[in-house]
Specification:
The complex is a heterodimer of chains A (330) and B (279). Chain A has eight helices and 18 strands. Chain A has helices at 18-32, 53-58, 77-91, 102-115, 224-236, 245-249, 281-287, 316-327, and strands at residues 5-9, 11-12, 15-16, 40-46, 63-68, 95-99, 119-123, 125-128, 134-140, 145-150, 157-161, 177-180, 194-200, 213-217, 240-243, 271-275, 292-297, 310-313. The N and C termini of chain A lie far apart (67 Å). Chain B starts with a strand and ends in a 17-residue tail after the last helix. Chain B is built from six helices and 15 strands. In chain B, helix 2 (72-81) packs across helix 5 (195-201) and helix 3 packs across helix 4. The chains are: A alpha/beta (330), B alpha/beta (279). Chains A and B meet through helix 4, strand 7, strand 9, strand 10 and strand 13 of A and helix 3, helix 4, strand 9, strand 10 and strand 11 of B.
Chain lengths: 330, 279
């Protein structure tokens, strides 16, 4: 029985996803805290992905498995799932970490079902017990409750973590080996699904996860007109616009990619400015780790004030136009 | 062509009221008193999609849920939307199930009623939000599955076009029935229930199946069949000082700008408007 910690490396357009680097950093941290540490091992699946391996080694992986094949160009659960299943059965890792991304949200539980193990989903913290077993902290009820999830008897102990929860790791001295996975068995598979295309719609402005300032609006913004003021303010500040659920439902905000919360993104900007947000638990879960939190709400009793550094009591519809004017370039 | 569509639904405490949830300090259990139980909101999108597909191709929409016996009333909400019948898988032995054990029982429930051409779920539940049941259900049923479906166009059973969400974009797929899909909110807008629908729902077939009614391997059921085990629960410490700031709109704007500056955000110049003098 080994204590190896595996990390699934996601990538797009020849670049490793930030969440995968964050997970590598976490895997190294866990390894360093173990009584009897194993290796940190990365797994890369795709076509033309060999070039990613050196970077994965630079970020601390001691071994990199590569599954490279033209059939693996686009994410294909029926191939990817079986590749990971085989690899796990052959190597019996102790822990397996994946990003709680769209891909990870399907692939992690799929692989877990194939090898009959457990996954702690959307963890916010990973700890170890005195046997080097994983204790994963997961939010429930929109983050109102946190719970430890253990996976005492099954291996690997799997966990997924959302992008932006962990710190970005530092580069280290690369020393490790690259191992090619024998993919001959792919020929025997007869997948039903066929991935046709993958389309990315690059959002305007600064990506929400990387923004130093997040300007977030909720139901209290009131209408599309005021929403546009919010967008302008964010742009002037070099920040990103974000929202809670209602602005999407109302059609003010363009889509779920800018939603913060348990079913949206988790962010840790330097500054979070919240306008007209009531402070539902699901939202708070995604923004509570911001550096400075300033929120504006008409209601002195608003829940959001309890997690804010400053709670400004005022009318969003009056303050937004004035704020927008203040930042207007002369 | 007539399709058998199974929609898996989960009764959960109303997510709008999660602020009210507390932990009993003595028993270390979750206190959710006074919070109504509803159908997991995303599951209604799955029901809606099933109803739309049925309207196009005919067939049956069957609800399936693993929950305590008192969930009947909640699940009837789905019948009121227009689903044809419901199965509630309920047994003390199912208690404490994680996603793997839950999806196993659901899969055996689906097999019990003769399988399905299409199984739909919501992407995740509001309470646990693991988002895992759908994919694991697909594995137990040995069917292809996709998660985060935002569009589904069944041209015929062997030719389905599916669109799934990814970070900042989407993927397009060709698939064929039978399969399992977890739908996202964007896929549709669930219909409202009517009084007539509620009346009709009471007369629709509603079957409770227990452990004994299903072909189950005890090793995969309930707490004992769950690889993951719950440990301690606690309430996160997320409170901040919440210093209230009151004042005119100008003062509030001034406050924001000063705080931005103090935190190194470069606000070069700003104006708070001009006042006209007397003529």
């Amino acid at each position: 029985m080994n204590k190896d910690i595996w990390v699934y490396i996601e990538h797009a357009e020849g670049k490793i996803a930030n969440v995968s680097l964050e997970l590598l950093g976490e895997a190294i941290r866990i390894k360093n805290n173990m009584q009897k540490p194993g290796q940190v091992v990365a797994v890369i699946i795709g076509s033309d992905v060999r070039g990613l391996a050196p970077k994965v080694l630079e970020y601390g992986a001691q071994e990199v498995y590569i599954a490279e094949d033209p059939r693996l160009k686009l994410y294909h659960p029926e191939y990817y799932g079986v590749i990971l299943e085989q690899l796990i059965k052959e190597n019996d890792p102790h822990i397996f970490l994946m990003g709680a991304t769209y891909l990870g949200s399907q692939l992690a539980p799929m692989v877990a079902a194939k090898v009959k193990t457990g996954v702690a989903a959307h963890c916010i913290e990973l700890k170890l017990d005195d046997q080097d077993n994983l204790i994963a902290v997961v939010p429930a009820f929109g983050g109102k409750v946190l719970g430890d999830i253990l996976c005492p008897k099954h291996r690997p102990q799997m966990a997924t973590i959302k992008p932006g929860i962990l710190n970005k790791p530092d580069k280290t001295e690369a020393s490790g080996e690259i191992v090619d996975i024998d993919l001959n068995f792919l020929d025997k598979l007869k997948p039903v699904l066929k991935p046709l295309s993958l389309c990315r719609e690059e959002p305007k402005g600064v990506p929400l996860e990387e923004a130093e300032i997040v300007v977030c609006g909720g139901w209290g913004v009131g209408d599309k007109e005021h929403w546009q003021l919010l967008e302008k303010i964010a742009e002037r500040l070099g920040g990103a616009v974000a929202c809670t659920r209602p602005p999407i439902d109302e059609g003010w905000a363009p889509g779920e990619h800018m939603m913060i919360g348990t079913s949206g993104k988790s962010v840790r900007p330097k500054i979070y400015l919240g306008f007209g947000i009531s402070g539902a638990t699901h939202h708070i879960c995604g923004m509570k780790d911001a550096g400075l939190i300033i929120s504006l709400n008409k209601d002195e009793q608003a829940e959001i004030f309890k997690v804010s550094d400053f709670g400004l009591v005022g009318d969003v519809k009056e303050v937004l136009p004035l704020l927008e004017e203040a930042f207007r370039l002369k | 062509m007539g399709l058998n569509i199974v929609v898996c639904v989960k009764p959960i405490p109303d997510p709008e009221k999660y602020n009210e949830i507390t932990i009993d300090p003595v028993n270390k259990t979750i206190v959710r008193e006074g919070i109504p139980t509803i159908i997991n909101p995303i599951d209604k999108h799955a029901i809606e999609e099933a109803l739309k597909i049925k309207e196009q191709y005919g067939g049956k929409v069957i609800l399936m849920s693993m929950a305590p016996p008192n969930a009947k009333e909640t699940i009837q909400e789905g019948l009121a939307m227009g689903a044809d019948e419901a199965y509630l898988l309920s047994d003390k032995k199912f208690a404490g199930a994680d996603t793997l054990a839950t999806s196993y029982v659901l899969a055996q429930g689906i097999k019990k009623i003769g399988g399905a051409d299409l199984v739909l779920t919501g992407t995740e539940s509001g309470d646990g939000a693991t988002a895992q049941v759908s994919s694991q259900l697909g594995e137990w049923l040995d069917l292809p599955h996709l998660w985060g479906v935002i569009e589904c166009n069944i041209k015929n059973p062997d030719d389905i076009y599916i669109k799934t969400k990814i970070e900042n974009g989407y993927m397009e797929w060709a698939g064929r029935l039978p399969m399992v899909m977890a739908v996202s909110r964007e896929i549709n807008k669930p219909r409202y229930t009517t009084i007539m629908g509620v009346m009709k729902a009471k007369k629709k077939p509603f079957t409770i199946l227990t452990f004994a009614d299903l072909e189950l391997d005890e090793n995969y059921v309930g707490l004992a069949g769950s690889p993951t085990q719950p440990g301690e629960i606690f309430t996160p410490e997320i409170g901040r000082k919440g210093e209230l700031v009151k004042g005119s709109k100008e003062e509030l704007v001034q406050f924001i700008i000063e705080k931005l500056r103090a935190n190194g955000i470069n606000v070069e110049k700003f104006t708070l408007g001009c006042e006209g003098g007397q003529n």
